[in-house]
Design goal:
The structure is a homodimer of 208-residue chains. Chain A is mostly helical and 208 residues long. The first copy, chain A, is built from 10 helices and no strands. The C terminus of chain A is likely disordered. At the A-B interface, helix 5, helix 8 and helix 10 of A face helix 5, helix 8 and helix 10 of B. Chain A binds a DNA duplex (30 and 30 nucleotides) through helix 3.
Amino acid sequence: MNATDMTRQKIIDAAKRRFAHYGYGKTTMADVAEDCDMSPGNLYRYFAGKLDIAEEIARAASIRTVEELSEILLDTGRSAAERLHDFLFHDLRETFHALEKDPKLVEMAQIITTERPHFHDEGLEREREVLSRIVEYGVLSGEFRVSNAEYVAEMIQAATLKFSYPQLFSSLALDRLERELEGVYQIITAGLRAGVAGESAPQNLVEA
Amino acid sequence: MNATDMTRQKIIDAAKRRFAHYGYGKTTMADVAEDCDMSPGNLYRYFAGKLDIAEEIARAASIRTVEELSEILLDTGRSAAERLHDFLFHDLRETFHALEKDPKLVEMAQIITTERPHFHDEGLEREREVLSRIVEYGVLSGEFRVSNAEYVAEMIQAATLKFSYPQLFSSLALDRLERELEGVYQIITAGLRAGVAGESAPQNLVEA
DNA sequence: CGATTGAATGATCTGTTTTTTATTCATTGA
DNA sequence: TCAATGAATAAAAAACAGATCATTCAATCG
């Protein structure tokens, strides 16, 4: 890690402490610069802007989450269905606990999601890679009958979207969310075991 | 319908035209009163307030949607799986087209959802009743192996939430949404055919 | 001479004032 | 005497002025 990288990391660390404590809006570039013993103008040699610093922090958190999710793939003692369960519940519990532990960082992540749409897509894609490998493992082990793991992973993400968005469940208790996720998980798992076709055009069954 | 009901309907009709054209915020109670040939104060003999008029309009639209969805139950020529497909796609297409045809009424409905949380829960419950009967029909016909139709209907709603919230898909094209919904529908249907347990406590599989 | 500063600039935010509007109610009319 | 009015009142929204802050860059420093 060269001097530039070290300075960038120093800025990220300072900004993260400020964002976590005061929130994104209440933190100024002057605050962050002061914490780093540099002038506000100098921050712009290392980052394009304030949003870019926040995006970097959010992306690191997203990557760490996916690294944790990836560990599910290493547990040889668990079936594909159990791994899928571990994945979905870990995702839910992590998001829920983040809301309790670092509400201001969650708020910052939501600002980035709104201002930088591609950031969110990237995060979904990272998680989908892990999900896809869980589904592939299920196909290999004979548990799931699926012809396109990547596509099915995308469908699972669409079906469990409710449990990934803090703003969609902030008014619900964790045990209620877990009950709902368990029910959705049961249907998904039963469907994967029974066999799901690959991607196909939507059937215009309505027009008769 | 007595005189009071007729006056209420007149107010609703006038307000709806205004809300559809100018939006909820840009419409004043004075505007609506004028359209009804009455004074602003008189509106309060028929409705508690402006939000209540808007809630009534949104509720009527929700009821009409559910009435349309209920017609799916009458088509004796279609299987339970086909009816479920009809239900989910009708819901998506209606929501999507409402965004195009009456964006300001959709915006009004979103204001009501925010200001009157119970309104949204009522709407979900109405749709769930239809969904539940479709699932029951599937159980009766032998297509679905489900022990608690009401519970499964709730899970299907959770799994398809993405396709009911305009703000969650307004940036996506209808054909892309239909492709995703088709995929989620295939997994759900396969799961229901294969058999889904009833409501149970979430398994703490993670803690090992 | 390249790295850094910190004031200048343009954009955004905040607090105050003004205007508008939802709601109420004393008065009037049918 | 009850239904309705429309001005009054309270609340909310909009406009405005000043303050704040993200970002830029001419000048300075190491």
